[in-house]
Amino acid sequence: MLGAIGILRSASGCRFIGSLGGIDELTENQEESDGCVLVVDPYLDGVPFPDALSEVTKRHPVLVMSARTGHQNVRRALQSGAHGYVSKDIDSSTLVTAVQAVGIGGVYLGLSVADVLMQEWGGAPPPDFGEPLKGTDLTPREQDVLTMVARGLTHKQIGTRLTLSKATVDTYVHRIRQKVGAFNKAGLTRVAMDMGLLSNHS
């Protein structure tokens, strides 16, 4: 991770907060680290995987950066709540792009990671990572945001309609994804349909 730390320290598109020796240190530095993107290699921490990721993704957007890029490793990470997965051999600009994408609630897969997954799926469209949970505890505002995402509105358009900043909408979408276990638009749309949200809105 030392190379990644050096890249992020000097990156103009990111603000580097610090590095931690392990996941257990997050509890000790929770106030300082809340809201930050965590770049982690869960295989190095000694905490049972995927328990390590499941715990930290409750509070943070997580980008996994690991030498292990097999489809099972990636699938388990995304099912545990990670929003991105890249190989340790990526270049500096790709790492910064990945951190920025995850930071706004997006999903980022490195090129080599995406290639591995597409080989597994035989070129078919990727499935959702994790089954959407039925009867989720979405708030009324989260349901409104989910409905608009499913109808194809951009985060900026949603913000305009609900009188919210784009950053706030990004946060809502991130929270919704965590609650329902859907990590792409197709998955979110299916959840909205299952909840009857699309039929209830004009």
From TrEMBL:
CDD domains the UniProt entry points to: LuxR_C_like
Pfam families: GerE, Response_reg
Superkingdom of the source species: Bacteria
Transmembrane intervals: none
Keyword Transcription in annotation: yes
Biological process according to GO: phosphorelay signal transduction system; regulation of DNA-templated transcription
Phosphoprotein among keywords: yes
Keywords of the record: DNA-binding, Phosphoprotein, Transcription, Transcription regulation
Gene3D superfamilies reported in the protein's UniProt record: 3.40.50.2300, Winged helix-like DNA-binding domain superfamily/Winged helix DNA-binding domain
GO molecular function: DNA binding
Signal peptide annotation: none
Sequence ranges assigned to domain Response regulatory in this UniProt record: 1-103
PROSITE patterns: HTH_LUXR_2 (PS50043), RESPONSE_REGULATORY (PS50110)
4-aspartylphosphate: residues carrying this PTM: D41
Domain HTH luxR-type, chain residue ranges per copy: 131-196
Record's protein name: DNA-binding response regulator
